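A quick word before the example. In earlier lectures we treated sequence and structure as two separate objects. From today on, think of them as two lines of the same record. Here is FMN reductase written that way.
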Amino acid sequence: MRIVVVSAGLSVPSSTRLLGDRLAAVAAPAATAPEPGPADVEVIELRDLAVAIAHTFTSGFPGRALSDAFEAVAGADGLIVVTPVFSASYSGLFKSFFDALGVTDPDALAGKPVLIAATGGTARHSLVLDHALRPLFSHLRAVVVPTGVYAASEDWGAEGLDGRIERAAGELAALMAGLSTARPLPRRDSFEDVTPFEERLAALRPAG
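And the structure line, produced from the sequence above:
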């Protein structure tokens, strides 16, 4: 099992990176339970890839470091994405990374479990999760976990954040475990064994 954290934080230290680390710390052991040992975790810091992302849009080709990041995201069993809030939405760097990924590999996130999270200076921007992040990853055909996590400045150290982290990370872990054990439907080579609709409907009617 492998979890990749994509952090769009710009500062050092970064509350965005901190939130991603805390989510991964809970999700990693839960994703492999009851097996011993946590899932592997890799963190991608987008600020280190900002120039490469910009060059991708002008040249049409990602550099080696950005290609490695795309491969990590595409190969992950679960994804944790965290962005700071700028102008009531995700950051431009965050959006550009996933835009470039979509151009390079349109199916990279198809069916992939994704936990969305964001940080901001005030709780008024918490709707960014449902108004911006959730639609973006639904468009990319990811499977977005029900609980997103928003952390305002006043949430750090306050009651409530730990509970949201536990719930969201647990949902991601459960989804990862469920998809890893799911079996594909048996393939049908012909339609000979398909019951006609009329017969199925007749079987539902009361006798007599």
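Notice the following. The chain has a mean pLDDT of 88. We will return to this example when we discuss secondary structure assignment.
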